[in-house]
Amino acid sequence: MSNSGMTEEACDSALKASLAGVSGATLSWMESNGVRTPFVILDSWDDLSKVQDNLNRHLPDGLCELEAVSRWGLSDEYATCDRCMRMVRTSPDSWSWQPDWAYIDDDRLCSACLRAEPEAYLAVYRNSQNLLNDSIIKPDDYGYARVGVRFERGLHQGQAADPIRIGRILSEADIDFLFTGVPGQFDVQFWVWVPSADLLRATSLLEEGDTNLDYDPGTEMAKALRGEATPYYKVQTRTISAEEFISGRWKSD
Ligand SMILES: [Zn+2]
Q1: Which residues contact residue 190 at a Cβ distance below 8 angstroms, ignoring those fewer than 6 apart?
Q2: FRET pair for 186, CA 20 to 30 Å: which of 2, 97, 145, 180?
Q3: How far is the CA of 118 from the centre of ligand 1 (A)?
Q4: Mind listing the pLDDT tens digit for each residue in 87-131?
Q5: Are the beta carbons of 180 and 132 closer than 8 angstroms?
Q6: Is residue 84 within 8 Å of residue 51, measured between CB atoms?
Q7: What pLDDT is attached to residue 212?
């Protein structure tokens, strides 16, 4: 992080001074390879110019790019942990992305802060269809055991597992559950976790029960794409211009 001829401390104080008064700029931090570095979150490109102008004033002996003193990103992709101000990514950057943060009582907490409150994190996902991120905490460290069936839901044929039905089967038997999984481009593979003492009962309930949707999403989607009638999917087509495609604006339609 050192800038030409400047100490890290001078860079840090120049950065802080440059952010003062820019309401759309938030000083956060990140850690990479065990080193803590500043991370600035900006509401707009306009805020970036303001910070950069300030930085030029605070470092009169030459232009200094923001990149030289801090990493930065825009607030539609990044936010801060409400407890420790660490940067968290809020928008997916890959098919398999899962949030490494969660809301606990309206506070957004990063993975490190969640690890300090594992029971609160588990409570958010207990008996919910959302996937708990097992890179934050491992359910087996907290008395849960994984049912030995891998479920799949998606648009490849046969991927018809229904987390709502699975949850209903377990709730009716008074068994708590958590889901973990791996999202892909067209599907999600997922696993069910239950308290260890309920593992045998849950396994036989899920093996014997009807855990699938009434229809196969892959088969029905293929029908829809071929123009055949299906009550489950509706395909709408429209032609987009080269400009729309390049700008990415077609995606929000
Ligand atoms: Zn935190």
Answers
A1: 131, 150, 151, 152, 153, 161, 163, 179, 180, 181, 182
A2: 145
A3: 13
A4: 999 999 999 999 999 999 999 999 999 999 999 999 999 999 999
A5: yes
A6: no
A7: 97
> 129 alpha carbon to ligand 1 midpoint, in Å?
25
CA distances from 4 to 49, 60, 212 (A): 21, 13, 61
Q: Are strands 151-154 and 35-42 parallel, antiparallel or unpaired?
A: unpaired
- Identify the CA nearest to 52 among candidates 5, 37, 42: 42
Q: Look up residue 196 and give its two tokens.
A: 């260890």
Q: Amino acid letter at 170?
A: L
Ligand 1 centroid to residue 24 C-alpha, Å: 21
* pLDDT over 80 (residue 14): yes
Q: Is the pLDDT of residue 62 over 70?
A: no
Q: What is the DSSP string of the chain?
A: ---TT--HHHHHHHHHHHHTT-TTEEEEEEEETTEEEEEEEESSHHHHHHHHHHHHHH-TTS---HHHH-EEEETTTEEE-TTT-BEEE-S-SSTT---SEEEETTEEEEHHHHHT-HHHHHHHHTT-SSBP-TTT--GGGGTEEE-S--EEEESSTT-BB-HHHHHHHHHHTT---EEEEEE-SSEEEEEEEEEGGGHHHHHHHHHHS--B-SS-HHHHHHHHHHT---SS---------HHHHHHTGGGG-
Q: How confident is the model at residue 252 (pLDDT cuts 50, 70, 90)?
A: low
Distance 90 CA to ligand 1 centre (A): 14
